Amino acid sequence: MNKKKTVLQQVTVEDYAAEGKALSKIDGKVIFIEGAVPGDVVDVQLSKSKKEWGEGKAIHFHTLSPDRVTPFCQHFGVCGGCKWQMLPYEKQLLYKQNEVVQNLKRIGKVQLPPIQPIIGCTETARYRNKLEFTFSNRRYLLPEEIAAAKETVIEQENALGFHVPRLFDKVIDITTCHLMAEPVNAVKNTIRDYARQHNLPFYDIRFHQGWLRTLIVRVATTGEVMVNLCLGYEDEKERIRLFDHLLKQVPGITTLLYTINPKKNDTIYDLEPKAYHGKGYIIETLSRGTGAEELKFKIGPKSFFQTNTRQGERLYQVTRDLAELTGRETVYDLYCGTGSIGLFVSDKAKKIIGVETVQEAIADAKENAALNHIEHAQFFAGDVIDVCTSEFFQQHGKPDVVITDPPRAGMHEKLVRKILETAAPLVVYVSCNPATQARDLNLLDEKYEVTRVQPVDMFPHTHHIENVVQLKLRSQGS
Description:
Blueprint: E1 7-12, E2 15-16, E3 22-26, E4 29-34, E5 41-49, E6 53-63, H1 89-108, E7 130-136, H2 143-149, E8 159-164, E9 167-173, H3 184-197, E10 212-219, E11 225-231, H4 236-249, E12 255-260, E13 274-277, E14 282-286, E15 295-299, H5 309-323, E16 330-334, H6 340-345, E17 351-356, H7 359-371, E18 377-381, H8 384-387, H9 390-396, E19 401-404, H10 413-422, E20 426-431, H11 434-444, E21 448-456, E22 466-473
Parallel strand pairs: 4-6, 11-12, 16-17, 16-19, 17-18, 19-20
Antiparallel strand pairs: 1-5, 2-3, 3-4, 5-6, 7-8, 7-10, 8-9, 10-11, 12-13, 14-15, 20-22, 21-22
Helix pairs in contact: 1-11, 3-4
């Protein structure tokens, strides 16, 4: 028998905590609440209850916060993305700024300069340049659909959209996604409608059967559009019919590819996409500012690239400014991905050395350096903590500036120790997770002081936040 979960009545939501969860305090106990806004008065069904904290979901609203706005997406509340659409954007920025401040103070516990106001996005919708949709023969049924059906048996329908949070085998059928500019919805809806009309088999994730698996769309600011359709197996005749129909209905596609994926997982990095139409890649550009030559990036179906191009430019401009380059520096770009940060700052540096684990990303970095005629940038594949040895630094030059942009888990402690040992005069730490960044800053505090902090919002309507920190080597004896 399932234990009945506790429901807390008429809880006043007070603030936001990390990861987009609201919070309240009841008799000194902190309650983290999903789906609420500060100012709401709600009933909370607890899913976890510890001595000092609890966690739950708002299941009934007695009073709505005056800060609430009407979400612009019809899929809000069901889709797992854009969870903050009910908050005005200026409020989102306020809570993100506060999260950075609290993480650096509570976890970092280091001396901080005044933290600069967060840099928000000019465009708060259609800002992404890449989306991946999933095909499924198990469409997620909305509660109102189930209620309306009553005693009628509901047939499972095919869907193309996003996975339901915490339900691995259910997909929300997305009509219009506002995260990306057209023709993303035209591509998605054209393929789905054609597949339904012609009874093409959508993938069954439970039994790993079916033809249509995933759809990846990229739209560059140059206007070029890449579509990569991932299929469970080859069916050349049906594929050609589908592709010809798609190209006729959506003529703006500049590159159309397909990837045969017979594996149980959806990753394509160990597979070989094939071009059906176009050159097999698109060109994206990044502006480095007034007077600087625009950078070009060749983006293939497996390339890594900053997901928000225009805000990526601003993030990289902040990184370049905090690096304080004069043209004489050897810059190490750690966790460099496709080398976009290193290439972006290369016109202000003497030498760029990039290191990244993913070999495909390093291949892209080398190709993009050649595309932009940047000859003083070198890129190396391998785990950063294995590559960045004392011998490596001796061979390629002691770093004057270290730029590090690690994944959400932050830097490996061995790399932090190596940076401390190398004692580069200046470090710029770019992070997508201020909590792990703060942990690393605490370790770096042994030799470095935090001199500048600049939060940057990359993903409006989500709780994600980027933060850039400048650290300078303390003078001996200080």
